[in-house]
């Protein structure tokens, strides 16, 4: 109902094929991390796999977290903002330097920014999905609070995160890092605001396009994190 053009919903991919592909992908991911011999990478994969399964799987009463808005937010925070950045950071630091500290300025910055993006994208996703969610009894935040309120809540979460990022940049003792962090995040915040103001919240296609734009900003942020020192 929400995305009829996707391969599984459109019938271009059978459930059997989808199950095989998913299973092989999981096995390959765990195997690569095991062969590399990196505990942080391996357990990062395990954590991401467990969180994503809890979010989607409809096999036990306590799973399929996507039915509940705050469980959904918890999934995104665990997977995108904690497990992935921390596990990958520990893996690279152990590989290059032989050890790592969890208390580092870039890592804390990354967790903070990715937390803001995780919350905003997961709540924003529910806006164009209202019709299908309502049909299947999923009481998303958009259904409970309304599309417009959730839309602007998500936008303001990111705008505050961009301002906070600029303030963090201002405290840097390295000149190039200071100005690069401030300018880039204020520019992204302005770009987001201009785009957000132009969207008709009642237009499902426009909202879906805005949702994809948020993901573009999300992945741009992975690059901007490198500027923080």
Number of helices: 10
Low-confidence stretches: none
How many runs of DSSP E, i.e. beta strands? 0
Helix content: over 70%
Beta-strand proportion: under 5%
Mean pLDDT figure: 89
Q: What global shape is seen?
A: flat
- First CA to last CA: what distance? 45 Å
How much is the radius of gyration in Å?
Answer: 19 Å
Classification by helices and strands: mainly alpha
Q: Describe the sheet with the most strands.
A: none
H and E string: HHHHHHHHHH
Protein name: Homogentisate phytyltransferase
InterPro entries: UbiA_prenyltransferase (IPR000537), UbiA_sf (IPR044878)
Pfam families: UbiA (PF01040)
Main location: plastid
Structural commentary:
It is a single chain. The protein is mainly α and 229 residues long. 75% of the residues lie in helices and 0% in strands. The chain has ten helices and no strands. The chain has helices at residues 7-10, 15-36, 39-56, 69-97, 105-124, 130-135, 141-145, 147-170, 175-197, 204-224. The protein is flat.
Please name the defining characteristics of this protein.
single chain; 229 residues; mainly alpha; 10 helices
Overview in brief:
The chain has 229 residues and is an all-alpha fold.
